[in-house]
Amino acid sequence: MRFINTDLTCRLDTLPWTGFHTRFVLALGITWVLDAFEVVIVSAVLKPMAKALQFTSQQASLMVSGFLIGAILGSLIFGYLADRFGRKKLFILTLLLYAGGTFLTGFANSFESAFFFRILAGAGLGGEFAAIHSAIDEFVPARHRGKVDGTITALWNLGSIMASLYALYLLKRFDESFAWRIAFFIGGLLTLLIIYIRIYVPESPRWLISKGRLKEAEEIVKKVEREVGISPKVESCQIPVFEGSIWDATELILTKYRWRFLFSASMSFTILTTYYGMLAFLPLVLSKVYNLSSKQTSEVLFFGSVGGLIGGLVVAFLNDRVGRKVLGVSISGLSTLAVFLFLLTDTNPKTLYFLYSLIAFSFASVAYVIATEIYPSYIRAYAIGVLSVVGRLSGALAPVLVTTLANKDYRLGLLCIFLFWLVGFSAFVIYAIKGKETKGMPIEQIS
Asked: What are the protein's UniProt keywords (predicted)?
């Protein structure tokens, strides 16, 4: 692997926050809102959709599985392509794929067509996750990276809230047999508006440097500096230029960065298993324990999304103040204990779920930050794609395991979620002892 000397990365990190950074983050950060929106909107309109297209119960459940299959494929394929061909091309292509898959779902007239369109939408959003996180980590100044990444992750809960309210409005306003189609039509069309914004988002200078394209990277950095009105004088540093294949990238992740990968995989595993496990556990099991109607269950879920949004934003703010290590250990430890709140069967479930979500759903705002920033730019998107596969696979299996145990005794379901949290807590404790504190550190120093 050869190296090149440049001062561009240091110049990016010394820039003050500008209007360009705000536009950049808004244009790319919408991915998390879309991800949550897609998951929740399908759940909200699945019943009328299944009735209209005459799905069996097994086929109905595969609508969610189809999206996850697509997301897994998209994460791996587009993650690698983002490292090879650039972030900009991919975060436009993946958004087009997501928009197309979502819009076409509204035209589905059979299980086969609906399942195929769900895979397309999932592939687009899976690829989004890898390309977007990479670009943001590589463009945002180091001292702001934690709060920006954390805030974007917290916006998942905003997408959940929006989808719940949107589905409720459509199902009240239109006949159920057609309302589900409108949900997908409008969802796909709104996404196209984001593509217009993204056309003006530049390529990641760090990715360009890793490919030896210094002149293009210099032009982008100078353009941002002109907007700010400064041109800082900083020391140059050596940046590696990677020219290997997908197999070379995989070997690097599993050898040189294997301990970081195990930590990151533990984060992805914990976030997705606890989220999807609880998302199935609440309506299928806890609703019986607390004698909740369908409407009351929806209200409890809504309170959880609000709690997660508040907690996530607070944690995002603390990322660059307290640091990743202390914050990660604290939040994962508290989340592990928070599972036992649901043993208080005499307490209002809205209050309990709000408190649980306030803590537990904020964990991603620190875990995803550190899990994605600890890789070098030349393999970051692919590494994130692999991590996404780990998380989505385990997240898909978690509801089955949790509900199977909970059907014997709901406390066994709680114990299962507790053990999922224990994985993340243990991994963060080990990282806190042996790993780097990445707060405010340039990407190059971390990797």
From this structure: Membrane, Transmembrane, Transmembrane helix
